[in-house]
Amino acid sequence: MDLNTTVVYVENENMSHRSQFEVLFHEYASQLSAEIKNTIVSQLFTLPYFHGFMCFVDNKPAGFAVCFESFSSYRAKKVLNIHDFMVSEDSRGQGVGKVLLQGIEQYCCDNDYVKMTLEVDDANVAAKKLYSSCGYEDYQVALKGQLHWQKYLL
């Protein structure tokens, strides 16, 4: 089945983008066990390092990604981290996730990013299959001896 898909970079000033992004984000948040504040989208749109992407199928929002820009001091280039990634339930299994990832990758190639990163829950088999099919691999496999640590401050 051929889909009429488009990936767009979310423009912070575009109210249509903002409202469509908010609808997708609320669908995503409803599936999480953590409580998400209703103001999160407004907060995201104020962050200078926030990059949002949406995928449309037949002009309907079908998926989104919340991304944050950082910098690799080793490579002296920008890095884009996909922090949240979601395909709407009614669009799953149709290749929308792959199209969205490819659109984000194209943006990164066009804007001189050195790499893209993401996190995935080990139990999310479908997501791991998608990411692997798009060339992503576990850091700990790719960089033996590299551990990724964190400390929550709140």
Automatic annotation (TrEMBL):
Leader peptide range in chain numbering: none
Domain of life: Bacteria
Keyword Ribosomal protein: no
Residue intervals of the N-acetyltransferase domain: 10-154
Pfam family, one: Acetyltransf_1
GO MF: acyltransferase activity, transferring groups other than amino-acyl groups
Keywords carried by this UniProt record: Acyltransferase, Transferase
Protein name as annotated: GNAT family acetyltransferase
Species of provenance: Photobacterium galatheae
